[in-house]
Amino acid sequence: MEELHWTRRSFLKNTVAGTALLALGINSDSAYAKDDLVKLTILHTNDVHSRIDPFPMDGSKYQGRGGVAPRAALINKIRSEEKNVLLFDAGDIFQGTPYFNLYGGELELKMMSMMGYDAGIMGNHDFDNGVEGFYKQLPHANFPILNANYDLSDTLLHDKTRPYKIFKKDGLKIGVFGLGIELEGLVNKVQYGNTRYLDPIAKALKIEAELKNEHRCDLIICLSHLGFDYRDNKVSDKVIARNTNHIDLIIGGHTHTFLEEPFVVKNLNSKETLINQVGFAGINLGRIDFIFQKNRGKKVSYLANVQAVNNNFEI
Hints:
Helix content: 10-25%
Low-confidence stretches: 1-29
CATH superfamily: Metallo-dependent phosphatases
Number of strands: 14
């Protein structure tokens, strides 16, 4: 199956409104009137790993980058400028700084709740304090944890996660579901307990069909902690994209991959699935703006960029 690397140049050449859509406006030559369009902004993070504070100013590669306060400022700025915004995280919320060792994930989930995350998923490191440790911190999250391929029915997390959630924005229906990586061999058995890993491709096919055909979603997003790509046959975001029909966007995690722009894969229907991942530690905030034709839910175009999170923002 053909894989295409999306570039800003090809976007400008092929977009409906050309350069005007770079600013997500519509010019007089567009096939669509401005009043007929609706814009949806997707923001996302992955593998934040308890990075509450920015990296210290010690001369290291990422000094001054990341941290909750500057990320919150950037998110608030975007929300003040855009009408329809959704914010997601693709897992590994926990582990990486002493904040996790001291508070067990409480601070991370409280901060995400304060920033207004709409949904998140569990990564392998979110099991580091066991199923019991994650369960203990869930009351601090005012957003859902999504996962379609972990059977948690024989654990404390039974009924504490959901396979997907549908969001409604300005007449659009956005279906979002989660996929987690296989825990065996990656996480100690005592930590994930009776959690059962289910085939992510089979689950993705089932969930996307339900979201598309039963719920008539205009956009389908997969939050994935499978990893961007592997040299062997391990299931990755690329594999999911090639073997499904209706996923518009995969927001990835686990491999700490820095993508400057989404990677584009042709799905089983020869349509484009975007894959995006923005590194780790909250260094970057991913952003993809989709344009839809109002009342029809027809996706017209998109523009993607990565916005650096640094400590220069005023709160």
